[in-house]
Amino acid sequence: MAGPDEDTHTHRGLSPASTHTLLILLTLCLTAQALVLHVPEGSLHAVVQASVLLPADVSSLGLPLVSWRVATATGVHPIVTWQPGVPPNVSSGYERRVETHTNGSLTLTQLRLHDTGYYVVTVTESSGNSKEAGLLLQVTEVRYEDLQYLGVVLLVLLAVSGSLMVSMWLLERLYRHLMSRQRKRHSPDLQVELQPLEATPNSTLFP
Questions:
Q1: Helices (H) and strands (E) in the chain — how many of each?
Q2: Of 93, 160, 81, which Cα lies nearest the Cα of 123?
């Protein structure tokens, strides 16, 4: 049979330590739900010297730290780390080649073949809670078929441009011809009258 002290302890509420632990767990759960990171599934394709947007959508209650890195055949390389309102910390080799966005996305310019790899974005809140996601980027050279297509398009544009220039030249000639005929139609006729040659008394035709 339980004594009075046991009854009192049984019906007593949670201890302060248990309450503190429960509050920490609840805070962590709420924090985890507050941080949202979405990166579209699939892979991206781009050509050398082009630009590409690495999309991401970050939602957080505070100002999270956003970091991008890439895993290539030569290893894992950091790209850039930034926080909203703070200048980004760009790694060597990516200076003047990256542009950060407030939603966590990253634009990579002047692409090279070795930029092919798996890009990972990590978002970390001040509480230490973090999430990450990634996508694959494939960088290729411009294909011969693409150059051939561009050449055909350029030839067509040159032909159209030449036709327009010839048409403008013909229209200008026609305009000048019409204006010349109009001026002749409205100008007065010039009549030249031949006056008879009269001999004066003191003049002779032959010496």
A1: 3, 11
A2: 81
H or E stretch covering 135:
strand 130-140
Spatial strand order in the sheet of 117-124: 43-47, 130-140, 117-124, 65-72, 75-82, 89-90
The 10 Å Cβ neighbour count of residue 50 is 13
pLDDT per residue, tens digit, the chain (207 aa), is 445 454 444 445 567 777 777 666 665 555 555 789 999 988 999 999 999 999 999 998 888 999 999 999 899 999 999 998 899 999 999 999 999 999 999 999 999 999 999 999 999 998 889 999 999 999 999 866 556 667 788 888 988 988 889 889 888 888 888 888 888 777 655 444 445 555 555 555 445
CA gap 60, 38 in Å, rounded: 12
- Alpha carbons 53 and 81: distance in angstroms, whole number: 16
Note if the pTM is more than 0.70: no
Cβ contacts of 130 within 8 Å, gap of 6 or more: 35, 122, 123, 124
Q: Where are any strands of DSSP class E within 12-129? A: 36-38, 43-47, 52-54, 57-59, 65-72, 75-82, 89-90, 98-100, 106-108, 117-124
